[in-house]
Write a structure and sequence with these properties.
The chain has a single domain, classed as lambda repressor-like DNA-binding domains (434 Repressor (Amino-terminal Domain)). About 55% of the residues lie in helices and about 10% in strands. It contains five helices and two strands, in the order E-H-H-H-H-H-E. A two-stranded antiparallel sheet has the order 1-2. Helix 2 crosses helix 4. It is globular.
Length: about 70
C-alpha cells in the first residue's frame, strides 16, 4: 500500500495557495513537503499540522492506494 497526496494538491489549487505558503502556515519543513511531492511516507505529525492549517481532515488530503496484485 502507498500514500497518495493528490487530494492535498487539489485543495491547494482550490485555495489558491502555494506549497511555500503551506510550509509557512503549517510550520512544516521543506523536506517534509518534498516527501509529500514524491508520495513518500511522512510523519503523522506533519499531516496533522497540514490539516490544522487547512481546516480539514486527513481523509481530505490523502488516500491509501493498495498495491497492484499480479
Amino acid at each position: 500500500m502507498r500514500a497518495c497526496y493528490n487530494k492535498l494538491w487539489k485543495i491547494l489549487i482550490d485555495k489558491n495557495m502555494s506549497k511555500t505558503q503551506l510550509i509557512k502556515a503549517a510550520k512544516i519543513s521543506t523536506n517534509a513537503m518534498a516527501k509529500l511531492g514524491k508520495n513518500e511516507d511522512v510523519r503523522v505529525e506533519v499531516l496533522v499540522k497540514i490539516c490544522v492549517a487547512l481546516g480539514c481532515t486527513i481523509d481530505d488530503i490523502m488516500e491509501i492506494i493498495p498495491d497492484d496484485i499480479d
